[in-house]
Amino acid sequence: MDQLTRPLALCAITLAFAGAALAQSPAAPTQSPERMFISPAGEPFRPSPDGPPPFEVWWSHLDPTHSGRADRAAFRADAVAIFERLDVNHDGVVDGFEVAAYEKSIAPELAVDGQGMGSRGATRDGPVQLLADPEPVSGADLDLTSKITLAEWLAATDRRFDMLDKKRQGFLDHDALLAMLPKAGRERRR
Predict the structure, then answer these.
(1) Containing domain of residue 143, as a range?
(2) Is residue 23 in some structural domain?
(3) How far apart are alpha carbons 93 and 136 in whole angstroms?
(4) Where are the beta strands (DSSP E) in the chain?
(5) What is the pLDDT of residues 89-146, one digit of tens each?
(6) Three-state SS for 70?
(7) Residue 160, in any domain of the structure
(8) Which has the closest alpha carbon to 38: 58, 24, 66?
(9) How far apart are CA 20 and CA 28, in angstroms?
(10) How high is the pLDDT of residue 156?
(11) Nearest CA to 77 among 158, 181, 174?
């Protein structure tokens, strides 16, 4: 081989090996990657490589017996647990500082842009929610005082339950809620 054909032959051999390696590599997954799920009360559930889908983690809080149903009491208990986590100083009120801490540290994915519009739904990779509520914690401030009492929190919780219980059955159905999620958030139980 002369000096010109030798490098070309080496390139051809290298490309042949690379092509064979690519042909043997596993196919890319066809299912869309799991996305973060924001519960109706604003608790974020992030995907983990070996864990169940985020929606299913939240649902397991509401339905520990795996009946496929969750009643208002379970929905409220879940919301109260989140309220207590947000009420850092335990004064019975989630104030503006605690809301800001939530937005910065607990659910920064719900960042609000300069026009007051949440990022939810703005990108295909953003968090998924059952309700179109750009910021569920602030959304519970019904009297717009920048202070959310437990009574306001529970009123917002009941309103959210009613919006999700479309058939007015008095309970939430796992499969019905799962069907409400965008396709990328519908990963089933593993």
Answers:
(1) 37-185
(2) no
(3) 15
(4) 37-38, 44-45, 69-71, 93-95, 128-129, 147-149, 171-173
(5) 999 999 999 999 999 999 988 775 443 444 433 345 678 889 988 889 988 988 899 9
(6) strand
(7) yes
(8) 58
(9) 16
(10) 96
(11) 158
